[in-house]
Amino acid sequence: MEKDHILSLARARRSVRRYSGEPVDLEDILYALEAASQAPSGSNRQPWRFMIVTDPEVKSRIREASESGEREFYARVSGEWGRWLAGKGLSWRKPFLEEAPVLVLVFSEMGAPYHRESVWLATGYVLLALQELGLESLTYTPSDTKRVAESVGASDGFSLEAVLPIGFSLDGGKKETRRKVGEMTFHNRWGECIGVEISTGP
Amino acid sequence: MEKDHILSLARARRSVRRYSGEPVDLEDILYALEAASQAPSGSNRQPWRFMIVTDPEVKSRIREASESGEREFYARVSGEWGRWLAGKGLSWRKPFLEEAPVLVLVFSEMGAPYHRESVWLATGYVLLALQELGLESLTYTPSDTKRVAESVGASDGFSLEAVLPIGFSLDGGKKETRRKVGEMTFHNRWGECIGVEISTGP
């Protein structure tokens, strides 16, 4: 087993917002969710629930509920966040919610300790597992998660954390750049950056 | 590249609370944090900060701050959570905070959108990368994260999300069992479990 598989996957993965219609094998989705279900969680409550959506009618409802929340959000967002969104050409329109062959809705059980933390940790597993299978994805959190959860009839007590469109990229877009890990990492003292370059691979 | 590496790692990983004194290569820790720093985040703000702690004096301060918060928490916890903790023999004592050769403190920048979600997703990357290198770990969130953050002089504006002791297990403990992914996964309709067994690997 290679020893730098995770880092290669992490580096290769990027957020994708345009999907081709090419279908995805449901077994692959289940592989990624199976990995997620092995993650640790508060009191081992496994507070995640996943909804795989392939039905166009359901996707369309999810898109409608998402976009109505986004229209309100984009009308009020400002500051650094607003500038970032505008700079990326992002808007309230979320066509990927219908274009991607599969959506995975990720929910957390609100009564479980550290439910949100646990579910997002498990979502990290999902992203790497999808990347391993050559599938592209996005972690999209609707501005109005409640409205979207209602649109699919989610039970009370479960909070929608993310919608993951999954499929194959239509564009040849590039990954956003990342800061060097040495700039984000301190050693023994806050503010004292470790500041190293790490070499990986041969 | 094998196609079921992520699932194998996810299955093999378990939470470890007893560590041997065997030292850990700092390069390995940086490898895992480098993977994390490639994760997606809200507006690509990369809101994570990591503090690698190897200094025994700093570990001891972290343990003290953690345990004083835990004593208060354990005095008041009850219900299902309390029973789970008691059943696992867990208490306010956190010796792993001194026993593990390395601690990684994971912080999130509170001003960044979806900072908590982003940092926990990245923590999922960390756990898999550590597992790949044969390192064991725990995601421990102190009951009083503020006190622990203060004990290491973290800046205002950063929230302590988790302390990860990292090293080699002393015990031959077993992983907590997990529910089948088919029980946690719906298809197109809430409540309609996909209920499959997935086969992976030969």
Q: How would you concisely characterize the structure shown here?
A:
The structure is a homodimer of 202-residue chains. The first copy, chain A, has 202 residues and is an alpha+beta fold.
Tell me what the structure shows.
The structure is a homodimer of 202-residue chains. The first copy, chain A, has helices at residues 5-12, 26-36, 56-76, 79-87, 96-99, 115-132, 145-151, 181-184; strands at 48-53, 102-109, 136-137, 158-167, 185-187, 189-193. With 202 residues, chain A is an alpha+beta fold. Chain A has one domain (5-177): NADH Oxidase (3-Layer(aba) Sandwich), CATH 3.40.109. In chain A, a hairpin with a 1-residue loop joins strand 5 (185-187) and strand 6. In chain A, helix 2 (26-36) crosses helix 6 and helix 3 (56-76) runs antiparallel to helix 7. The longest helix of chain A has 21 residues, at 56-76. In chain A, 46% of the residues are buried. The model of chain A has no long low-confidence stretch (mean pLDDT 94). At the A-B interface, helix 1, helix 2, strand 1, helix 4 and helix 6 of A face helix 1, helix 2, strand 1, helix 4 and helix 6 of B.
